[in-house]
Amino acid sequence: MSYQANEKRYDRMLYRQVGQSGLKLPAISLGLWRNFGDDSPLTTQKDLILKAFDLGITHFDLANNYGGGAAERNFGRIFQDHLKPYRDELIIATKAGYQMWDGPYGDGGSRKYLMSSCDASLKRLGLDYVDIFYHHRHDPETPLAETAVALDSLVRSGKALYIGISNYSAADASAISDIFKALKTPFIINQMKYNLFEREFEDELKAVTLNEGIGNISFSPLAQGQLTNRYLNGIPEDSRISRKGALTDAVTFEHNLAKVRELQAIAEARQQTIAELAIAWQLRDSGVSSVLIGASRVSQLEENVKALDNLTFTDAELQAINAILKMTR
Ligand SMILES: NC(=O)c1ccc[n+]([C@@H]2O[C@H](COP(=O)([O-])OP(=O)(O)OC[C@H]3O[C@@H](n4cnc5c(N)ncnc54)[C@H](OP(=O)(O)O)[C@@H]3O)[C@@H](O)[C@H]2O)c1
User: Fold this and answer.
1) 8 A C-beta contact, residue 178 and residue 213
2) 32 lines ligand 1 (CB under 6 A)
3) Whose alpha carbon is nearest atom 7 of ligand 1?
4) Residue 205 Cα to ligand 1 middle (Å)
5) Which of 18, 80, 179, 312 could form a disulfide with 148 if both were Cys (CB 3.0 to 4.6 A apart)?
C-alpha cells in the first residue's frame, strides 16, 4: 500500500525561524550520516525516514560523502517511492567539502568541485534542486570569494534554494558572510558540532551568527549517542561504537559516562530521559534553530521528539548541569 503521511504530523513539532530568513526548520531534524549507507537495510532506512516525517520532521540532512554517496542514493529511492507527493513539505539538504572522488577536483572548495558535486548529488537524490546546499568545511587553499561565488551560482541556476556553511571558524564565517551579503546570496544557516560536552560554538561562532542574522543547526547533539542511556550498561553490540569504532578516546568516554550518570538525576526530576534533556537544553536557546539528530531505530526518534514537551530550564537546573559538566577530567 502506498504511504500516506500521518494527518497529525504538524500538531506536535515546533518550527523555528532560521536566523533572519523566512525559512522555518523543525526543532528536530534527521541526519543521514550514519545508518543510511548500503550496510543498513533499506527497509529500516525507509521506516526511519517515514516515521520522522510522520512526527513532523520535515528536514533531512545529507552530504555527498555520507555512505560514500549511498545515503543520497538510498534517500532518493525512498523519496521516489514514498515522499515525492510531499516534496513541497520537505527541506532536503546536502553538502560538499570533504574528499569525494580521486584527483585534485574531488575535495575542498573550488568552483570546479562544488559545481560537479552538486550535480552528482542531485542525480543520486533524483531531485531537480536541494533546499539547502552547504559548504561542508572551509578550504584554506581556495579563496573564500571563489567558494562563495560558486555557491551563489548554485542558487542562481536553481539547483539550491538556500546556502549554508559548516565547520567554519568564527572569522571565516564572518568573512564569507560579508561576501554573500554583497552577492545577495540567500546564505541563511551555519551547521556546527554542539552538545553538552562540546561547547566551542559558544566561544565566538555563536555571536558571529547572531550578529549576521544566520541561523544555527547543531550536529551530533547527543555526542553520537553518549548523551543517552545507550552506554550506561556497557557497549551494546548494535551500537555505533560496536559498528564504527570508538567515538572518542577511552578516558574521555569514561569521563563522559560519569557525567551522564550525574545528569540522569536532573533529567529524571524533569521527567525526561538523558537524550530528551540533551536536546531540550539546546532548544531552550532560540539561537539554535534546529537540533540535527541521528537515529538507528524508530524508538529513538519517538523518544527524542518528546524533548519538545519541556524546553524550559530553571536557573538552578542550568547551574547544576554546568557544575556536572565542569567535572575535571
Ligand atoms: N556538518 C558536519 O560536519 C557533520 C558532522 C557530523 C554529523 N553531521 C550531521 O548531523 C547528523 C547527526 O549526527 P549524529 O548522528 O552524530 O547525531 P547524534 O544525535 O549525536 O547521534 C545519533 C546516535 O545516537 C544514538 N541515539 C539517538 N537517539 C537515541 C536515544 N533516544 N537513545 C539511545 N541512543 C540514541 C544512536 O546511536 P546508535 O546508532 O548506537 O543506536 C544514533 O545513531 C548526521 O547524520 C549528519 O547529518 C554533520
Assistant:
1) no
2) yes
3) 219
4) 22
5) 179
What's residue 327's pLDDT?
Answer: 63
**DSSP state letters, 186-213:** -EEEEEEE-BTTB-GGGTTHHHHHHHHT
Distance 320 CA to ligand 1 centre (A): 25
Residue 148 CA to residue 184 CA, distance in Å, equals: 11
Neighbours of 256 (CB within 10 A): 21
Whether 257 contacts 229, CB under 8 Å: no
Q: For the ranges 196-205, 236-245, 263-272, 279-288, which has the lowest average pLDDT?
A: 236-245
Query: Is 72 within 8 Å of 64 (Cβ atoms)?
Result: yes
Q: Is 228 in the pocket of ligand 1 (CB under 6 A)?
A: yes
CA-nearest residue, atom 14 of ligand 1: 220
Q: How far is the CA of 156 from the centre of ligand 1 (A)?
A: 32
Tell me the CA–centroid distance for residue 224 and ligand 1, in Å. Answer: 5
Angle at 121 between CA 132 and CA 22, to 5 degrees: 10
Which of 228, 229, 298 has most ligand 1 atoms within 8 Å of CB, for mutation?
228
Write the pLDDT tens digit of every residue in 10-43: 999 999 999 999 999 999 999 999 999 999 999 9
pLDDT digits (tens, 9 = 90+) for 111-168: 999 999 999 999 999 999 999 999 999 999 999 999 999 999 999 999 999 999 999 9
Residue pair 28/308 in contact (Cβ under 8 Å)? The answer is yes
Check the CA dihedral 283-168-224-119 and report its sign.
positive
Contact call for residues 170 and 197 (beta carbons, < 8 A):
no
Whole-number Å distance between alpha carbons of 166 and 219: 10
Environment class of 287 (CB within 10 Å of its CB; exposed 0-12, middle 13-18, buried 19+): middle
Per-residue confidence (pLDDT) for residue 329, from 0 to 100: 39
Q: Answer whether 166 contacts ligand 1 (Cβ < 6 A).
A: yes
* Nine-digit cell string for 106: 574531488
